[in-house]
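Troubleshooting log. The previous structure file for this entry was overwritten by mistake, so regenerating from the original sequence record. Sequence copied from the archived sheet and checked twice against the printout by T.R.
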Amino acid sequence: MIVYAGIDEAGYGPVLGPLVVARSVFRIEHANGAGDPASLWSAMRSAVCRKPNDRRGRIAIGDSKALYNPSLGIGRLERGVLSFLTAAGETPANLDRLLALTAYDEASRAPGQPWYGDPLGGPDLPVKADPDNLLGCADRLARTASRTGVVLDDLNAAVVYEDRFNRMVEASGSKATCVWEFVAGHLRAVWEKYAAHHPFVAVDRLGGRQDYRGLLAAAMPGADVVATESSGPQSAYRLSDGDREMRVVFRVGGERTHLPVALASMLAKYVRELLMLRFRSFWKDLAPDTRPTCGYLPDGNRFVAEIEHLFDRMGLRRETIVRSR
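Regenerated output below.
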């Protein structure tokens, strides 16, 4: 068996809304070997593809930035994420249930800010994708998994709400360090569960950093970390501790070369955008004449300027809603 995982984030740049760092983990039951895993787009080509609007009706799995924009909505992200979850036996009825299924920790599914609360757990899912089509996609994935032995084993998302994000950035002095804390947590989770199977983990490269050996050694105490490649678009490492081993690659554009990274990217973006639906609904009720926002610059700053007069009345501290970096 090969274990093949991917890690990616969504929401690194906005001034409003959560940062989400996600992982996906696949088991390839009928394979073994020490090289890089074969492309899952190829192995699962009867069910998945890279681009939307496939004439065969396959599920698009790719970079979330290519599958989502505000005018299109979240339908493509939703179709991919919920199809895989349904095929794995989980069908979340609403956002609260999705957060519970994928929660990295308790803080990921229990936001303290009122703009992320919903007494009914909404929105109900799916928001945009056709439910019958989702069932058909899930069935197609299940049949493909049965034939190929490629099975989704885990989907997990660390949701970092603004107040937690700001505390971590203040403590470390860097938002890149904040992101790394959750990437490292995902790596530790894969190591702890799968190290006996020598997993391969692909991570979308974080900014311009090329050398991760020191970070990996600090994050994985007791493991020997050896750099096996550190040039061009990819840095690769082998971690070992006795019979346990894990290979980790940090790749520029990892979502274009590793399907598990692409699915992690889609989950991260899907969770963030669902939470932003709650965010916009909350502020629309309080400031109905204020144009809504997705939280990115410069529109996020415009939105803050237009609602900031409400902060004192609400007893709201700026750092609970507006990111410091």
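The chain has a mean pLDDT of 95. Archived copy saved in two places this time.
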